[in-house]
Amino acid sequence: MPQTVTSASMFNTSDFSHQLHPTKEDEHGMLIFQDGNLISASLEALIEHLIPTVDYYPEKAYIFTFLLSSRLFIEPKELLSKVCRMCIEQQSLDEPELDKVRIRKFGPKIMQLLTEWTETFPSDFRDERMIGHLKDMIRRIASCDESYWKTMNQLLQTLNQKLATLNKGEENTVKVNASMNDKLVVIKTKPPSIQRDIISICNDPYTLAQQLTRIELERLSLIGPEEFVQAFVHKDALEDTKSCFSEQKKTENLEAYVKWFNRLCYLVATEICMPAKKKHRAQVIEFFIDVARECFNIGNFNSLMAIISGMNMSPVSRLKKTWGKVKTAKFFILEHQMDPTGNFYNYRTALRGAAHRSLTAHSNQEKIVIPFFSLLIKDIYFLNEGCANRLPNGHVNFEKFLELAKQVGEFMMWKQVTCPFEVDQNIIHYLHTAPVFSEDGLYLASYESESPENQVEKERWKALRSSLLGKT
User: Fold this and answer.
1) Smallest Cα–Cα separation from 268: which of 199, 187, 176?
2) Tell me: the pLDDT tens digits for 7-45?
C-alpha cells in the first residue's frame, strides 16, 4: 500500500526533477520519454498513466502535474468519471463476483489517489457530481472490505472542512472588498478631530509588517493551484477543444489578491499625500520605509513591493520638498532589492534565499515566503505564451506542464504556512477599510501639498480642483 502523502510533501519541489520514468508498459507507444523524462503523450495515455493498478501507483509529482494541467483539456468531473470507469473495467468491479484478493490490493491505491485529489484540489469537489463519482468508486470496493466506509467518511469529513474554510474565507473577502472605499475622499476638508492615519493606529513598523503578513497569508490560503491554469485558459485556446470552464469558478481568489496589492499601493500613497505639513509627510515616508524593511526581513515580498510601488507613484515622487526631509538611504537599498533590472535578478536572489531558509526552518516565522505575486503571475503567463499546450502531432506538451507544476507547487508550499503573528483587529480593520484617494485624488492632494512646478501641472491642478472640489 502506498504511504499517505501529506499536502506539504505533494508540493516538495525536489520531486519536480522531471524524472517521471515509465513504470507501466506503454503498449501503444503513446507516452514519449526523452532521457528518462516524460515529455509528451496523448491525453488518453496520460489519463491511463494516472490510474493505479494492483502493482502500480503514479508518482506524486505526476499526479499533481496532470491534475493541474488536465483541466485545460477535460473538465475535472469528466476526468474523474473516466478514471472511475476505467478502474471499474480494469478491476472488473461491475461483476457479480469480485476478486477480493485483487480488490484488497487495488483498494488502498485508488483511495490514496482520491485522497490526494481532494487534498490538493478541494474546489473541484464543490461539484456534487465529483462527490457522486467518489462515493460510487468507494462503494464498489467497500463490498470487499467494510473499512473503506470509515475511510470514505473520514475523507469526506476532511474535504467538507476544507471547503467550509474556503467558503468562509471567500465570503469574508467579499465583505472586506465591499467595505473598501476606493473613491476620492477629501480628507483635508474634515476637522482634525475625526481624521485618522496609519501612524495613529500603529506606530511600530514591525507590528504593521506582521499584520500585513497576516493579511497576505490569509488571502494566499484561498488561492487554489487550479486558478493559475484557469487564469490563462483563454490565452492559449486549443483549436479542437471548447472551453472547459463553463461551470467552474474561475479566478476570484487570485483576482482578489491582486486587488489587495493595488489597494495597499494606493493606501501608502494616500497616507503620504494626506498630511498638510511637510514634516508629517516625511515622517510617514520614513515610517513606511521601516515597514518595508521589516517586510523584507520577514520574507513578505508582496507587501514590500506594494509599499515601494506606492512611494514611487508620481503624486508621491513629485513631492521633492518632502523627500528632501527624508533619510533615503534605507529606501534606496530596498529599491535596489526590487530593481526590475535583469528580470528582477536581485529580488529573485533574495527569494531563493528566503525559500532556502523556509526549507530549513525551525519555526513558522522562518518558513514565511510571500513572493511578489504579480511577477509570479507574469512568469507563469510567459511560460504559457511561450510554449504550446499541444504539439503538432496532437500530443499534450507535458514538458511544459512539468515546469508549470514546479512553479505552482513551490507557491503551494509557501501558502500553507501558519501565520505566527497574533491578529490585531484594529490594524487589520484600518488596512481593509481606510479610505484611499483615487489617482486623481492623489494628484490633487499632491498639488495641494506642494504647488505645481510647470504649466502642465498647473492646468491639471485647476481641472482637478474644479471637478473634485467644485472650486476654480
Assistant:
1) 199
2) 444 555 555 554 554 544 344 458 999 988 899 999 999
- Contact predicate 63/23, CB 8 Å: no
SS (H, E, C) the chain: CCCCCCHHHHCCHHHCCCCCCCCCCCCCCCEEEECCEEEEECHHHHHHHHCCECCECCCHHHHHHHHHHHHHCCCHHHHHHHHHHHHHHHCCCCCCCCCHHHHHHHHHHHHHHHHHHHHHCHHHHHCHHHHHHHHHHHHHHHCCCCHHHHHHHHHHHHHHHHHHHHHHHHHHHHHHHHHCCCCCCCHHHCCHHHCCCHHHHCCCHHHHHHHHHHHHHHHHCCCCCHHHHHCCCCCCCCCCCCCCCCCCCCCHHHHHHHHHHHHHHHHHHHHHHCCCCHHHHHHHHHHHHHHHHHHHHHCEHHHHHHHHHHHCCHHHHCCHHHHCCCCCHHHHHHHHHCCCHHHHHHHHHHHHHHHHHHHCCCCHHHHCCECCHHHHHHHHHHHHHHCCCECCCCCECHHHHHHHHHHHHHHHHHHCCCCCCCCCHHHHHHHHHCCCCCHHHHHHHHHHHCCCCCHHHHHHHHHHHHHHHCCC
Rounded mean pLDDT, 446-463: 93
Residue 147's pLDDT band (boundaries 50, 70, 90)?
Answer: confident
Please answer whether residues 307 and 288 qualify as being in contact, where contact means their C-beta atoms are separated by less than 8 angstroms: yes
Whether pLDDT at 456 is above 50 = yes
pLDDT of 242 strictly over 60: no
Please name the amino acid found at residue 366. Answer: E
Model confidence at 74: pLDDT above 90: yes
Q: CA of 9: how far to CAs of 14, 39, 215, 303, 405, in Å?
A: 10, 23, 25, 27, 14
> 40 exposed, middle or buried (CB, 10 Å; 0-12, 13-18, 19+)?
buried
pLDDT above 90 covers what percent of the chain?
74
Q: pLDDT grade, residue 2 (50/70/90)?
A: very low
Q: What is the pLDDT of residues 368-409, one digit of tens each?
A: 999 999 999 999 999 988 999 999 999 999 999 999 999 999
- How far apart, in whole angstroms, are the C-alpha atoms of residue 390 and residue 348? 30
Q: At residue 132, what is the residue type?
A: G
Q: Of 276, 288, 263, which is closest to residue 202 (Cα–Cα)? A: 288
Percent of the chain clearing pLDDT 70 (strictly above) = 86
Are the C-beta atoms of residues 281 and 273 closer than 8 Å to each other?
yes
